[in-house]
Model the fold of this input.
Amino acid sequence: MAAEYIPVEIGNAPDLQRLAEAVQKTGIPHALKRGAETVAVVHPAPKKEAGARSPRRRRTGVLRADDPLFQIAGIGASGGPGDISSNKHQHLADAYAAEAE
Done:
């Protein structure tokens, strides 16, 4: 269950700014005390919002000869009359001839 927080602007409160920076820098929660009583605990904010999607990172680099992609290249070639890509001109000629008849 996601917790609902009430936002508090700390721009005009130097003590709160220092506390927030310490929590953010160390990643360790800080307890706010009044005498012996702990009245609040300040935790670091989550790195990303719940449900938010991080942008996809592009993979960089060059394909190497041992890349698995090269193992599937040409897997679908039949070499027969149904091989459309290698026999495209013949298929087009047959189609045009059928229309002319």
Observations:
- The first helix runs from residue 14 to 26.
